[in-house]
Amino acid sequence: MNYYFFPQILGILCFATATGTISASQFFLFVAVTSWICCLIWIIFYMFTIREAINPNLNWIFIEFVVTAVCALFFFIAFIVQLAVFSYVKAVPENVAGHETYSVKGRNIAAGVFGIFNFGAYCAGLFFLFLEHRRGTTM
Questions:
Q1: Residues 49-77: pLDDT tens digits?
Q2: pTM attached to this predicted model
Q3: Containing H/E element for 6?
């Protein structure tokens, strides 16, 4: 079963709201984009039934479980770092079309909150994959 559509949407929100001005935000963007690409690969595997076509006696559910666990772990680290760094940053001035705005801090905190939601979505997918793995499903 495919559990990757909700993390895909949240992943787009994560890297749409984060800005790469500080190294913590760059790490957050790296995790969001890498996880998004991994999810996209799994969606393609499901859409075009590549898993069934290849079938070299691999336990696909376990492989998917490991990939989802790694993505969830990295999102856990990334959203903690993102929120920890930007909760102590003073309002960073940003010059947009000659007007100085202070939206960088708010956008990055929003990205961290979306990271929490994405972590929750990955954990939910991880739980359902664990149930499938326990049932003995391999495809």
A1: 887 788 778 888 899 999 999 999 999 99
A2: 0.83
A3: helix 5-17
Query: Taking a C-beta distance cutoff of 8 angstroms, is the pair 68, 126 a contact?
Result: yes
* Cα separation values, 82 from 1, 41, 90, 131, Å: 31, 26, 14, 31
Residues 10, 16: Cα–Cα separation, whole Å: 10
Domain range summary for the chain, segments of one domain joined by + = 5-135
DSSP assignment of 60-122 equals HHHHHHHHHHHHHHHHHHHHHHHHHHHHHSPPPPEEETTEEE--HHHHHHHHHHHHHHHHHHH
What type of residue sits at position 15? F
First to last CA, the chain: 9
Q: What is the rounded CA–CA span in Å between residue 5 and residue 35? A: 12
What is the crossing angle of helices 60-88 and 104-135, to 10°?
160
pLDDT at residue 94 greater than cutoff 70: no
